[in-house]
Amino acid sequence: xxxxxxxxxxxxxxxxxxxxxxxxxxxxxxxxxxxxxxxxxxxxxxxxxxxxxxxxxxxxxxxxxxxxxxxxxxxxxxxxxxxxxxxxxxxxxxxxxxxxxxxxxxxxxxxxxxxxxxxxxxxxxxxxxxxxxxxxxxxxxxxxxxxxxxxxxxxxxxxxxxxxxxxxxxxxxxxxxxxxxxxxxxxxxxxxxxxxxxxxxxxxxxxxxxx
Length: 211
Fold this sequence. Notes:
Shape: globular
Order of helices and strands: EHHEHEHHEHEE
Strand content: 15-25%
Distance between the termini: 26 Å
Largest sheet: 6 strands, mixed
Number of domains: 1
Number of helices: 6
CATH topology: Rossmann fold
Number of strands: 6
Helix content: 25-40%
CATH class: Alpha Beta
């Protein structure tokens, strides 16, 4: 099975470099234009999407004829009290400093920890594999969030040299094309190729632009 895992297009909060996890924001005009101008060469019958507007709108612009199958646990991490704020606005916040010192592995106050986020995405991906098999889907297409992409790729990719989760970070409209070997119980992804690689991080995007 071929697997395509995409991050949605930009929202206004992405452009302003604000943490956006639980906030259900639509694509901004710039983001929608970038989505239209960077359409993957795919024509899936079904797309598995996060239930959040920015993911569903991206999928609709790219694949207007595809059935959208919502996967609630593909939603982005909840950044709690960091939500909607920039790193500059929080530079003197002791909770934010501690979170950065922990490399984001701790729990954002009033939010979600990586230890909670990763298992829910991983479990959802396994369920999606089962659904895709039952539906006879050969090209599995997912449109979700930066964190979702990182969780899937860092968990299931099969490589000689294991990468850190952040190394699977993608910009808005980017994604990974990979191939699935093994089944729902023991999935492995191989031969990852970056999609829309022309959309680089040279525009100054950082992790807080997610998700």
